[in-house]
Amino acid sequence: MSNTPMAASPLTRAVLEIDEYVSGLGWDQPARLFALVDTARLRAEQPSLAARLGLGDEPETTGLTPIEQDEVETGKPLDEFLATIAWPGTVAGCALSVERLMLPPSAEAQVPQHLDEAALAKWVAGHPERQEVRMTVAVLRDGARESALRLRAKDSPTEVLTGSDLVPGLAEALAATFEE
């Protein structure tokens, strides 16, 4: 992809490619789930699919190709949905892109106690310091993790924050989809 640094690891490149793809769809999108497959293996084992995905004969041998899955169920909490996922052995990893509201750490002390999940979500949505964020989190079977965060207020490819432990809870939930 155009804004993906070639020096980055294959997992970082995949996360940034997904972030760029979802960014092109605009905001207020549903969660999107992706399988990550080894690009060289995909070319060798499924050349027609590789061709449909635009994977030419580039010399890169360590890449990961994101393949978007069916729509994420919206009527079920995300953690419950992820608990129903199992991947075949050909899938090297997975990624999820999801939008959420977040508050800065300075607002944590203001959170009212004893709110249920719905009331807390409503309180956060009404907070003047809330920010909309798109989180793209990926994990590999071997335990590697990567994340990309994009704030709606700074919606630019040059303003995307990456790191392996930015959204640890979501990374754990995705890693659990590979447990036997």
Highlighted features:
6-stranded antiparallel β-sheet; 180 residues; alpha+beta
Spans with pLDDT under 50 lasting ≥5 residues?
Answer: none
Our count of helices gives 6
Secondary-structure content class = alpha+beta
| Quantity of strands, as a count | 6
| Secondary structure: helix percent | 25-40%
Largest beta-sheet characterization = 6 strands, antiparallel
Rg estimate, integer Å: 17 Å
SSE inventory with pairings:
Elements: H1 10-24, E1 32-38, H2 39-45, H3 47-52, E2 64-68, H4 78-82, E3 93-102, H5 117-126, E4 131-140, E5 145-151, E6 161-163, H6 168-175
Antiparallel strand pairs: 1-2, 1-3, 3-4, 4-5, 5-6
Tell me about this structure.
The structure is a single chain. This protein has 180 residues and is α+β, with helices and mostly antiparallel strands. It has six helices and six strands. The chain has helices at residues 10-24, 39-45, 47-52, 78-82, 117-126, 168-175, and strands at residues 32-38, 64-68, 93-102, 131-140, 145-151, 161-163. Strands 2-1-3-4-5-6 form a six-stranded antiparallel sheet. It is globular. The mean pLDDT is 86.
Brief rundown of the structure:
With about 180 residues, this protein is of the alpha+beta class. Helices cover about 30% and strands about 25% of the residues.
